[in-house]
Amino acid sequence: MQKLVEGAVTEALRDAGGEAIRLYVAACVERMAPLFVGLRAGKPGREADLAFYVEAVRDLWHADRPLADAAEGVRRLERFPELQPNEEGITDVADTYAFFAALCLRYALLSHGSGNADDAVSCGHAALTAMGMLDRNVPGARFLAEEHRLQSLSLSGDASGLWDASVAAGRERFRAVSGCLTR
Predict the structure, then answer these.
(1) 37 with 62: CB under 8 angstroms?
(2) Is residue 1 scored above 60 in pLDDT?
(3) Range 55-62 contact pairs with CB under 8 angstroms and sequence separation of 24 or more
């Protein structure tokens, strides 16, 4: 499978390791979080899943140390309906973006716990794939280009500026997907 993550970002992740990887995946998931939380809020029986997702995103920002319970978080996340095999596939707009947000978190937890650059690249790939789809569904959108820019920024080491940019990008993504739902 071809990766959408730019070669320079992939190489930097493999060279940097540890804290840089953890910061990169935290930022990717922060940008995807509004999609999962916003699209699953109010769904009956999903309260615990939403709380877990939000808590996991918060914990990922502790880039100075690996998560002690990352493997358990992955196991819990893999029980989410979004990551369960489905014979019909995913056809609903909300389900599609919630799936990519859950997948992004899965790879983020894996790489945060292990420091594995390949899992970090997969996390970035999930975010880029979702943004490429969003660009195709929203006329004039440039979410894919913005995700590429923010992934490069993620390697700068400036967590405060990165957090702000990621939160703002996540909100814009949610607004765009919400607009697709109301058409």
Answers:
(1) no
(2) no
(3) 56/29, 56/105, 56/108, 56/109, 57/26, 57/29, 57/30, 57/33, 57/105, 60/22, 60/25, 60/26, 60/29, 60/30, 60/108, 60/109, 60/112, 61/26, 61/30, 61/159, 61/163, 62/22
Phi-psi region of 140 (alpha: psi -120 to 50; beta: other; left: phi over 0): left
Q: Is residue 35 a contact partner of residue 130, using CB atoms and an 8 Å limit? A: yes
Tokens of 179: 């607009």
d(CA 158, CA 23): 9
Report the chain's mean pLDDT, rounded to a whole number.
91
User: Looking up tokens 């940019």, which residue turns up?
Assistant: 165
Taking the C-alpha atoms of residue 159 and residue 35, their distance in angstroms, rounded to an integer, is: 21
Q: What is the pTM of this model?
A: 0.93
Whether residue 73 is predicted with pLDDT greater than 90 in this model: the reply is yes
Q: What are the backbone angles phi and psi of residue 154, rounded to the nearest 5°?
A: -60, -25
Contact 177, 134 (CB under 8 A): yes
